[in-house]
């Protein structure tokens, strides 16, 4: 514990203040460096890809100029490896000067000037995961103040090189310290990852009181295996995790890797669909300067984004795991609408799946659906009548479903979101 008395610290955090600060009513959207650019600090030989102010400025330019910002992608988030190995003479964190010559405050202005927000990274512990200066308990206040003085809008607080007692003290203290700066800052806590992600080690009610979002599980990697492993863990534990989420408090299954090297087009759609169902942060980690059109279309899909950003903020669930390796996911949405995702975990060929809305616990009645990725409309779906869809291996069919009598209302809703109903009804996906 060092010189800090445990009792004194416990007294400091004994009053929990709910985070009713109005931030993150819907899951955050943006971009984070880590999964794609890692700890590349070699600006001599890899100028384009190293962790430097240029990477974040380039990304801000792309977000502002290529239609991302208008869709809600607004946070540009620095991850590990931005720091100098030494704090300054006042004990403050400082960026590595050769890679961030303008400093973070200037970078924040650059990003704010483009209508975007800046996120930064620190670590509750003696060092960051990659060995840069950590935020020990005695440094929490000064680091919160430094970030506020720079104009930071979002803090990812990692948990390498600390023990569970320090984490139990440090995560709530940082929440208080950020609040005390007077600057609204989103607070992302990696705490659950370091204590196993589940109750009783994790108190999700406490987390929701002190953090806006939290990482529950291991880092995502650039592969379909990694995406599947994350979805499997979140679904297996949905009884604990799903009720923890809501406006201002989100589970974070980690970054979107769409546009990188590891996912096929079908798998990329699957990640987007499942992240929308899970009310997950839509934080991309990719190279926005070099993004192919199919990745762009998936990440900019307005219906998938509208589902993710639904104002009720209810996280969805896995409804069914069929023996034939088809899984069905469901999320309730505003205006009596809902989202369905049919995921194939198969590895052979497109699978014809027969079901009905009644089998998926929908009430009797007639519904309409929009196929999120083809844009086609499905009309006159009687809840009790069977339909058949074709699902590609490791792919999804995703539907936005609403009761027929509500179609006028939802159409006006979607008109507001400047969204779908583009396709002609004759391109029905119901076979
Ligand atoms: C600090 O917390 C109070 C109480 O939850 C909240 O009303 C206020 O908006 C917070 N201020 C900042 C800057 O986060
Ligand atoms: C979890 O934290 C809340 C405070 O948000 C507290 O009231 C509750 O007793 C805690 N639950 C457990 C099991 O410790
Ligand atoms: C749906 O189909 C069932 C069985 O065919 C029928 O009894 C019912 O009237 C239909 N409902 C509607 C709303 O069309």
UniProtKB/TrEMBL annotation:
One of its GO terms (molecular function) is alpha-galactosidase activity. The keyword Disulfide bond applies. GO terms for cellular component: lysosome; membrane. Its main location: other. It comes from the Eukaryota. Pfam families: Melibiase_2, Melibiase_2_C. It is an enzyme of class 3 (hydrolase). Residues 1-18 form the signal peptide. It comes from Gasterosteus aculeatus aculeatus. Belongs to the glycosyl hydrolase 27 family. Keywords: Disulfide bond, Glycoprotein, Glycosidase, Hydrolase, Lipid metabolism, Lysosome, Signal. It is found in: Lysosome. GO terms for biological process: glycolipid catabolic process; glycoside catabolic process; oligosaccharide metabolic process. This is Alpha-galactosidase. InterPro entries: Aldolase_TIM, GH, Glyco_hydro_27, Glyco_hydro_27/36_CS, Glyco_hydro_b, Melibiase/NAGA_C. Residues 313-395 form the Alpha galactosidase A C-terminal domain.
């Amino acid at each position: 514990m060092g010189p800090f008395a445990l009792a004194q610290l416990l007294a400091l955090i004994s009053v929990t203040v709910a985070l009713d600060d109005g931030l993150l009513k819907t899951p955050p959207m943006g971009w984070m460096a880590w999964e794609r650019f890692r700890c590349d600090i070699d600006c001599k030989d890899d100028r384009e890809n190293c962790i430097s102010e240029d990477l974040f400025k380039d990304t801000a330019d792309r977000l502002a100029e290529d239609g991302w910002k208008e869709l809600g992608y607004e946070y540009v988030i620095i991850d590990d490896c931005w720091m100098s190995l030494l704090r300054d003479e006042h004990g403050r964190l400082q960026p590595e000067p050769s890679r961030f010559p303008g400093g973070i405050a200037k970078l924040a202005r650059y990003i704010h000037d483009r209508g975007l927000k800046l996120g930064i990274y620190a670590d509750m512990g003696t060092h960051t995961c990659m060995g840069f200066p950590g935020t020990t308990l005695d440094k929490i206040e000064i680091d919160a103040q430094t970030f506020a003085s720079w104009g930071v809008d979002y803090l990812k607080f990692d948990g390498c090189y600390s023990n569970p007692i320090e984490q139990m003290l440090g995560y709530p203290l940082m929440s208080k310290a950020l609040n005390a700066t007077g600057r609204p800052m989103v607070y992302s806590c990696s705490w659950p990852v370091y204590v196993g992600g589940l109750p009783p080690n994790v108190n999700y009610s406490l987390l929701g009181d002190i953090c806006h979002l939290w990482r529950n599980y291991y880092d995502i990697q650039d592969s379909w295996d990694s995406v599947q492993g994350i979805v499997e863990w979140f679904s297996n534990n949905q009884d604990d995790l799903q009720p923890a989420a809501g406006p201002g408090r989100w589970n974070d299954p980690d970054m979107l890797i769409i546009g990188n090297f590891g996912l096929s087009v079908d798998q990329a759609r699957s990640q987007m669909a499942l992240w929308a169902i899970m009310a997950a942060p839509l934080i991309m980690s990719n190279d926005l300067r070099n993004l192919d059109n199919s990745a762009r279309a998936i990440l900019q899909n307005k219906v998938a984004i509208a589902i993710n950003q639904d104002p009720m903020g209810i996280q969805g669930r896995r409804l069914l795991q069929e023996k034939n390796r088809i899984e069905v996911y469901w999320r309730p949405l505003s205006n009596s609408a809902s989202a369905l995702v049919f995921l194939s975990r198969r590895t052979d060929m497109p699978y014809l799946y027969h079901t009905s809305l009644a089998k998926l616990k929908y009430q009797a009645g007639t519904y309409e659906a929009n196929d999120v990725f083809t844009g086609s409309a499905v009309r006159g779906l009687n809840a009790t009548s069977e339909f058949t869809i074709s699902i590609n291996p490791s792919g999804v069919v995703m539907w936005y479903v609403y009761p027929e009598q509500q179609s006028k209302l939802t159409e006006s809703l979607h008109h507001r979101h400047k969204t779908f109903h583009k396709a002609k009804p004759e391109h029905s996906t119901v076979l």
